[in-house]
Amino acid sequence: MAYLLFKYASISAAVLVGLYAGLLGLLTTSSFQAHVVYLHKIQMTWFKDLDVPESFGFLRSQTTPFSIKSSTGGTLYAWHILPIELYRHHEPALLTEPSGFASDITSRFAFKLLRDDPDARLIIHMHGAGGTVGSGYRVPNYRALSAGQPNKIHVLTFDYRGFGRSRGTPSERGLCIDAIAVVDWATKVAGIPPSRILIFSQSLGTAVSLAISEHFALQSPPTVFAGAILVAPFVDAQTLVATYRIAGSIPIISPLARFPLLFNYLQTFIKDKWLSKDRIAGYIRANEAIGEKYRLTLIHAEDDYDVPSHHTEVVFWHAVNATVPRGITYDELEEVKYKSKKDLGAAGSVMEWRTKNGVIREEMLKTGLHDVIMGNPVITMAVMRIFEAADPSFK
């Protein structure tokens, strides 16, 4: 009996090892790797129609689905979401509008409310891996974003290529191109100046937002937005996969960390690097060099089991280090944080690093997980803090 148990246990172990080895082999291929990294085929909209935003809890014609052309020829699926108080003021006119997908959004009354209001603010929302504009905690997130000024703050969210109804295959270069196209639409079609635009991003979206923020800051003349909020950012793809667990429980390559040669070899196959630590440093150096004002807020929950909160601490260090000509070590910054950060008890802690040109804020929450945090008041407060700093008259 003991022999049979040992035999079956050995066979089971061999099968598991074989399956794991097969998974590692598949991960070295770019196509399979894209599915694992971006999870773009997992839509999580539970058979709802994205062209019917009312099924996600919005009022009739509060949200307009439409498309934005990418420079590579594809189209990106997007939602323009009206803030609730603005909707209330114009409800009779909005109810006469056709609902659903707009082939020409410029003809919609909701679009005109954005374009024609010189006090309107726009948040460009860049979501994380998996799902669509309507998935999971993203809808409560949109409400939290506009809650601080529900008569003025519009939200523009979109699906990257390969996600939802946006055609194509996701890649680092492709997602950056898509995000640039959305910014161009906001500034050129909707006519919103960058000073009235805030970039909000979460998880994978933080890497996208940092890439395009650096891109626009390096243009001549530079384009600098009102600010940026990054929720659950990560250092880079290589550091993330070293600890990443699917649903917080299924490791990918972290079990191989005890075998450094094999572990490092497998990491060389990572196609999309997403070097957020370098991009945030490049973005800040660009602004510091020319004296442009910038505002960055990094938010992370300590109980986030998808992206460990230590990633934000490291990204924050790279950001601060970029402002110090002689540089600052991680340990030196930790000493400064120990003396200067505000302890908020059960709410976590806050640390601000200020220069003549910018403010880099790190908010570490005790709770909020990876997604729940997006609908919490901390998001509304972060939005208003940035918009009011950019324009004190915006109350």
From TrEMBL:
Ranges for domain AB hydrolase-1 come to: 123-297
User: SUPFAM superfamilies in the record, alphabetically?
Assistant: alpha/beta-Hydrolases
Which Gene3D superfamilies does this UniProt record tie to the protein?
Answer: alpha/beta hydrolase (3.40.50.1820)
Q: By its UniProt entry, which Pfam families does this protein fall under? A: Abhydrolase_6
Query: Which protein, by its recorded name, is this?
Result: AB hydrolase-1 domain-containing protein
Q: Which domain of life is it from?
A: Eukaryota
Matching entries from PANTHER family are given as:
ALPHA/BETA HYDROLASE DOMAIN-CONTAINING PROTEIN (PTHR12277), PROTEIN ABHD13 (PTHR12277:SF81)
